[in-house]
Structures are given as C-alpha cells and as structure tokens.
Amino acid sequence: MFINEFVGALVQVLLFSLIPLIFWLIFARRKQNFFKWIGIKKIEHEGKWWGTACAILIATGLYMGLTLFAIRFLPEGVTTAGSDFAGKGFAAFPAVLAYGFIRTGLSEEIVFRGFLLKRFGEKVGFITGNIIQAILFGMMHGIPFGLATHNITVAILMTILPGAFGWFQGWMNEKRFGGSIIPSWFLHGMINVIVATIAL
C-alpha cells in the first residue's frame, strides 16, 4: 500500500508542478530559480514567535474542529480524503504519511500558496491575491462534496472551511515566514495525516 501511495503521490506532485514550471520557464527563468519562485526556500520568521504560534494553534484548532463536526453530517456513502485508509489499521500509517505530506500537502501547497498566491500577489497585491487563491482552494474541496451530495449547503460549507484555512496559510507564509511555503506544507500535511489516521 505504501509503495502505491508513494508513487502516486510523486506523480501527483509532478503533475501539479507542471503548469507552474511552464510559467516559470516562460516568465521567470532568468530572474530566480524555480524552487525559490514557488516558495520552497529557507524560512525567515518575521514578528514574534509566540504570536505566530498562537495564531497557528487557534486557526488549526478551529478548522479541524469545525471540519470534523461538519463531516459527521455528510450522507452515508460520501467519502472524505481519509476514507481510503478507513479500517486498514496502523500498518497503513506509512501510506498515510505519503498521502498527507506528499500527495495532498506538497502538491496543493505548490499550486495554491506557491504558484497562485505569489503570481496573483504580484499582479493585484497580497490581499486580493490571497483571497483569490483561498476561494479557488475552497472550491477545489467544496465542489466535489456538492456534486457527491447534491446539497448546496454542504458545498458551501466545505468550500468556506478549507477556503478560510487556505487564506490563513497564505497569510502565515507571506506575512510571518518570508514567503516560504514550507510552514503551510508542514501544517497541511499534519492536518491530513491526523484526519486520515482517525479513519484507520
């Protein structure tokens, strides 16, 4: 199970990196290396560490609590991200790590906080750019739930929760960690691993 998940995760990262790579080759290759351009770079913290830590704990706690609460009301048969691991036991934990940190965490952070936020931010400013990437991130989660349930309330709720957290991750990266996507990658991965582990 781990090998399949790990290989699938690497393929997804490569696919999710393709459009950013094409844009970089066309527009930014001579200005900056690709990894720095998408935010895979050294973390440089700005502001007070305790303030950042409190913001992360509060935002993460609210997001996880509200999401786990909302999932309880989904109709039977509607799967969530961790459903593939349900009932597999602790032997599936290595696969959960590959899923949480690589397949979803890394690939989504490259696209949303590494590519979309940074590119929109350059064109329309951080505030608008962060809102745009957050809306798109939320829709990527909410629309599949809406299609699966045929329920507009579910679609809206499952768009708003990840969207709001995606906005927080963008703010955290750009305003507290010097534009590095590593903090949001770690946080995103941890949340996905926790949610999937609960399903084991």
Layout of helices and strands:
Blueprint: H1 2-27, H2 34-37, H3 49-71, H4 93-124, H5 126-149, H6 152-176, H7 182-199
Helix pairs in contact: 1-4, 3-6, 4-5, 4-7, 5-6
Protein architecture, described:
The protein is mostly helical and 200 residues long. The protein has a domain at 48-73 and 90-200. It has helices spanning 2-27, 34-37, 49-71, 93-124, 126-149, 152-176, 182-199. Helix 4 (93-124) packs across helix 5 (126-149) and helix 4 (93-124) packs antiparallel against helix 7. The longest helix is centred in the middle third of the chain and has 32 residues, at 93-124. The two termini are 13 Å apart. The mean pLDDT is 93.
Radius of gyration based on Cα positions:
17 Å
Main beta sheet: strand number and arrangement? none
Distance between the termini: 13 Å
User: Which outline best applies?
Assistant: globular
In helices, the fraction of residues equals over 70%
- Compressed to H and E, one letter per element, the order equals HHHHHHH
Beta-strand portion reads under 5%
**Would you tell me the structural class of the helices and strands?**
mainly alpha
Task: List low-confidence stretches.
Answer: none
Number of extended strands: 0
Mean pLDDT: 93
Q: Helical segment tally? A: 7
Oligomer: single chain
Descriptive labels:
globular; 200 residues; mainly alpha; single chain; 0% strand
Short description:
By secondary structure, the protein is an all-alpha fold. 76% of the residues lie in helices and 0% in strands. It has a domain at 48-73 and 90-200.
